Amino acid sequence: MYPHERSLVKKLADSPFALIGVNSDKDLDKLRPRLQEENISWRSFWNGPEGTSGPISKEWDVMGWPTIYILDAKGIIRERNKRNHEMETAVMELLAEK
To answer: Which CATH number fits domain 3-97: 3.30.429.10, 3.40.30.10, 3.40.50.1000, 3.30.2090.10?
Structure first.
């Protein structure tokens, strides 16, 4: 389900890069085995029993799922909703700036 993300995490394993997920499933007990089944190897936070209305999505003003934020080394959002190769290009450009 996440082949490009897996590839990017593996490719940048020795770089100052982190992929962080926020999961909106309402049931944490059902979520845990699903993360293993889908081989999610990056840090993934649970948005709470409120699902898409949970505290993380409220704080970050998430209006749709998935929403992708690409942050620079200072924590500033530089890109939104880049996927696949556009995501990789944006990340590689930020790493080149560092």
So the answer is: 3.40.30.10
CA-to-CA distance for 83 and 87, rounded, in angstroms?
5
Kindly report the CA angle at 69 between 63 and 35, in degrees rounded to 5?
A: 85
- The amino acid occupying position 41 is S
E strands, 1-82, in order: 20-23, 43-46, 69-71, 77-80
- Cβ partners under 8 Å of residue 48, min gap 6: 54, 55, 56
Domain boundaries, the chain: 3-97
Q: Is 76 exposed, middle or buried (0-12, 13-18, 19+ CB in 10 A)?
A: exposed
**Average pLDDT per 10 consecutive residues for the chain, totaling 98 residues:** 83 92 94 90 93 95 91 93 93 92
